Amino acid sequence: MHVFSLEREQAWDPKHHVEKILGTLDGGDFTVACWEPGQISPYHCHPDATEIYFCFSGGGVMRTPDSTVEVTPGSFVVHPPGEVHEYANGAERTLLFRVRYGDDMASRHYAWRGNPAWTQSPEDAAYYREHVVASA
After folding, report:
1. Quick check: 89 and 40 in contact, CB under 8 A?
2. What is the tens place of the pLDDT at every residue in 58-85?
3. CB neighbour burial string for 41-65, b if at least 16 within 10 angstroms, e if fewer
4. CATH architecture for residues 6-130
5. Which of 52, 60, 108, 105 is nearest to 80 (CA)?
6. How far apart, in whole angstroms, are the C-alpha atoms of residue 53 and residue 28?
7. Bridge partners of residue 21, in order along the sequence
């Protein structure tokens, strides 16, 4: 059994969101993710892992090529392997609980709004040439 307090585990950084892995189990991990107002994740996917977010407090918007949904306290979002997604935090601090499981937790990054210094790696560019994103 693994027991954690999200409130005790939270950690914040005004420069970038914090994803603190609390533990691993059977090919997966569980994480507390802390977001300051306005922070945005890279638009990315996990080709070989399912990713689940549960909103504990705060909220923002989760975007995929097909839809955009509000993330509010008590809601959760499930991304199947390979689904490109981005989280944009709202106007207040947000505390999310994340679970990932699958053969490989690796991310493939497509774009990163709000981070003009970011550049796509050659490996990620090759991945997206083979796995075209419908719209970004």
Report:
1. yes
2. 999 999 999 999 999 999 999 999 999 9
3. bbbbbbeebbbebbbbebbbebbbe
4. Sandwich (2.60)
5. 52
6. 14
7. 31
Identity (one letter) of the amino acid at 104? Answer: D
Tell me the mean pLDDT per 10 residues along the chain, length 136. Answer: 91 94 91 96 96 97 96 97 97 96 94 94 97 81
Question: Residue type for 99, please?
Answer: V
**Cα of 2 vs its chain's centroid, Å:** 22
- The DSSP secondary structure of 103-127, one letter per residue, reads S----EEEE-TT-TT----HHHHHH
Which tokens in the block code for residue 8?
A: 């005790």
Query: Residue 110, class by beta-carbon neighbours within 10 Å (0-12 exposed, 13-18 middle, 19+ buried)?
Result: buried
Whether the Cβ atoms of residue 75 and residue 55 lie closer than 8 Å to each other: yes
**Residues 6 or more apart in contact with residue 66 via CB below 8 angstroms:** 134
Classified as helix, coil or strand, 7 is helix
